[in-house]
Amino acid sequence: MTTALATRDLSAGFGAEVIGVAPRIPLADDQVEQLRRLFDDKGMIVLRGVNVDLRFQTYLSHLLIGEEPLAEGSTILDRPTAKNERFVSNKEPDGGAPFGRLLYHSDLMWSEDVFRLLSLYGVEVEQPTSPTMFVSAARAWETLPEDLRRRVEGRYAIHCQDATHRQRGDGDVLVSTFAEVESIRLPIGHRHPRTGRMLLYVAQQMTDRIDGMDEAESEALLQDLFDHMYRPENTVEHHWREGDLVLWDNIALQHARSNVRVEGPVRTLRKVLAPTPKPTWNAVRQFSKVGE
Q: How far from each other are the two terminal CA atoms of the chain, in whole angstroms?
């Protein structure tokens, strides 16, 4: 007999809090089916006040995108923690993004091997803490005004590891430098590779320019797209507490955060990516230093 999970929408367009999921392996088949449907529909699932270890976080992260982490021969749950466990933290040694404000982005948006899901778990959180903010690129495309839609029709954007040049006067924004900058050219109207939904695929932190336009024209159009995408009514803020597990579609959603200070309250979040990116772990670790 299937028992429906209790859920609460986080906004009119995306995100859902799920109540009643016990963090055990394996989850019941009916719960797996419900959670996968909910994740594809809402793009983000939040569990609050749960005691979650790395193994369950990794299990659920892969499960939601259709992978079978308990399949015979799978090593997903048994990889060394050095390759799975890393922290976004202002206190943990070698913690990623230990300070600063992060602009809206999807992790590894500049890579051909962008991963499909990102999850964070509140390991140690002191109040007051900086929230993580989310927007839906799918909802942004669906609500794109016709004049903007005509302006981006057939256009491509160039995404790179760091495109915060337009914010360099803001001392709170975390600005990163890379010895070799990777980039990718993709349609602004980009189809999600798994769900098929159309996305408005530009981001403050990762989109460098619009291909084929001069700098002034490109910046003007990007700013109009950002003004549409990041309107306050389109955002969801997650205010962290210990025991929060947030899992989201890293392609369909973008995330950002307000300023974090090294000397501020403890903010340590455990990060899991699914599936495991193909680039070398050194490259992934390098990026995780600057991304939520």
A: 39
